[in-house]
Amino acid sequence: MSDLTTALAAGRERARAHAAEREAHAAARAARGQARRSATELEAVARDASARFADETDASVVLRWAAAEFGDLLAVACSMADTVLPHVVAEHSPWVDVLFLDTGYHFPETLGTRDASALALRATIVDVRAELSVAEQDAAYGARLHDRDPATCCRLRKVEPLARALGGYEAWVTGVRRDEGPTRAGTPLVTWDAKNGLVKINPLAAWSFDEVLAYASAHQLPANPLLADGYPSIGCAPCTSRVAPGADPRSGRWAGLDKTECGLHT
């Protein structure tokens, strides 16, 4: 048997074992049937945690708490610009649900990163899609809505689908960092997300972009190739452009428009 054949066989066996562990976790979670608490109860949890972690910078501290506090009802939102966030969370919450907004407009590199993460991480990738396909949206609103009305396009393809997906959870974890721009400079580690009615956790808030890259390298994580090609912040292909060295990392998002956020974090 050649070295290549042996390597391929070993890879297939790892993939089978990976899938079996994920399926076993899903079955155990279904058997537990954890019930979701009320918004009033969750808001109280968020308020207490916000004060408790106000001066915290260690992601592991807040994520250990989140794993114990929310159990199966914790989700991660990941854009697949990198896979650091789901890896960090899965260290404390193995096979956590990772919600990926499959907008229909992603770069091929982003979809490839999603596929690689499903094989490499102890996480459960959940594709979240809009009610309308891109073709159906074009028929209803006209082609290239993102050029004419990006706020509505983001609402249809990101904000509303994520809100529906989050309905079954108590808390969601995001990769928002304070160094990403002025609109995110005051990001807390834990807050109450009144719009979605659940706790919002930002464990990497104090991290720098370089720290994210260093973590990915140290743990040999799948990374979106666009990060090394001038895209420090990656969204939908029609609305994302390269960023000049030293510029605001999010300046390539909706460049030339009076828009800095898609609405998920506002």
TrEMBL record:
Cofactor comment text: Binds 1 [4Fe-4S] cluster per subunit.
Cellular localization per UniProt: Cytoplasm
EC number(s) given by UniProt: 1.8.4.10
Record-linked InterPro entries: PAPS/APS_Rdtase (IPR004511), PAPS_reduct_dom (IPR002500), Rossmann-like_a/b/a_fold (IPR014729)
Record-annotated active site: 262
Alphabetized UniProt keyword annotations: Cytoplasm, Iron, Iron-sulfur, Metal-binding, Oxidoreductase
Gene Ontology cellular component list: cytoplasm
Domain Phosphoadenosine phosphosulphate reductase: 76-241
Molecular functions (GO terms): 4 iron, 4 sulfur cluster binding; adenylyl-sulfate reductase (thioredoxin) activity; metal ion binding; phosphoadenylyl-sulfate reductase (thioredoxin) activity
Cofactors demanded by this protein: [4Fe-4S] cluster
Family: Belongs to the PAPS reductase family. CysH subfamily.
Protein name: Adenosine 5'-phosphosulfate reductase
